[in-house]
Amino acid sequence: MGLHFHRNPDGTTTGRNEANGFTVTLAEEEEVKRQLYEDAGWEYTPPPPPVPPGFHRFSLVHDEFRACGFEDERYAGLRARPPEGCVPAGRGCLALECRRPGKTLLDAVAGTVAEVRTEHGLVMNSLGVDKPEEWYDADTKNGYAAHIVAHLVLMAADRARRLGYGRKEVVRLLDATGIE
């Protein structure tokens, strides 16, 4: 069963439950989500309240290919002394649920990744985005689309390192795209 959401050009959101065809279109995106969850028999949890201006909410994950879990000894220091504004969470591996300051979401994520690496010797390599191919909220620099960008950059850096690529090769590839 799949639930699909689409933001329409008129600003409304349409949601569809693929299992039974239930479809709803409303101006309020969260109400569409609530109704679809209810229709699917899933528990709906409303979003948390907005963060203050200049702060960003995100998750950082240490996603390992080999078996490890939240209680892994490597995470003891980070669990005991997480960065300010972050709370350790178990997601099968170590995650940090963060509410941190920054000019942009990417700035807040970069500062937190650098702090964790410096203080604990651990490189956080994901924002825990399940479906990075979903691309909505692209009209705001700090919305869901920004979470996807940060997730993909962290994941790409981690995988490039695992393959033996260095910073120069990764930066060369970024430069080749013409990004300013």
UniProtKB/TrEMBL annotation:
It comes from the Bacteria. Residues 10-22 have a biased composition (Polar residues). Residues 1-22 are annotated as: Disordered. This is dATP/dGTP diphosphohydrolase N-terminal domain-containing protein. It comes from Streptomyces iakyrus.
